[in-house]
Fold this sequence. Notes:
By secondary structure, this protein is mainly β. The protein has helices at residues 56-63, 199-209; strands at residues 3-6, 13-18, 21-29, 34-36, 39-41, 45-48, 51-54, 67-71, 74-78, 99-101, 116-118, 124-126, 148-151, 158-161, 166-167, 186-189, 196-198, 227-229, 234-236.
Amino acid sequence: MKRFTLGFIIGGVICSALTGFAVEYAVTANPFPIRVDGVEKSIEGYNINDSTYFKLRDIADAVGGFTVGFTNNTITINTSQSEPSEQPPEPINTDGTITIYEDQPRDNRLAREGDIFVKADGTEIVLAIGPHGVLGEGQGVAPDVGLMDEVGVGDAKTYRPLEANGRLLTGKYGVDSVGKGTSDTQYQVNILTGEGHWAGEWNVINDYTRPTETGTEVGEISADKNYFWNSLTWVLVAEHPEYADIFKVN
């Protein structure tokens, strides 16, 4: 029987030193279908030495019950929100301008231009559309963290707030500022700047702002702190918070 192991894989070949000898393992893509509670899922995996490895965050997204992050050079696994509340917060002023408090759960709507975002230190920021049509671009805030999502159906329905680098499984909030649906879409937060956008919004930012010059060293950070050089190309920091230990900020 094959063993299935959670882990992170970087590169095409893993080498480990054992009693002075280098042991080389070939890495191949996982050839097996994956089903969660009978539903087939598309999860990237790798087969190494007859064991299958998956990214921990991908497993968290697929099965739920925990979230994965990276804080203060530490990989964090959070199960504290695996016990969602029975009722969501009451919707407040969903049609007009709303005030959004950093990291506080809310159940009204996606953030919009003109909403007020209050940071943990009390700083107030009026959300604006950025130069490339993305809400909050360059403002260093993640206004949709805390949105409540429905989990389960019928009498078993409960509610859980969206976390940084998490997903919403329902489509109750519609589309983001560039017109992309938010259902089952990751909300990615740049851990260097605190700025958060939906994956579709980051794609637009990437189209316009990705550096064109070659990086000089692995982990080099772009001037806007949105990208790092991974030895081959520039990658959005928000897409890979687990690599924070290699980020080099000038």
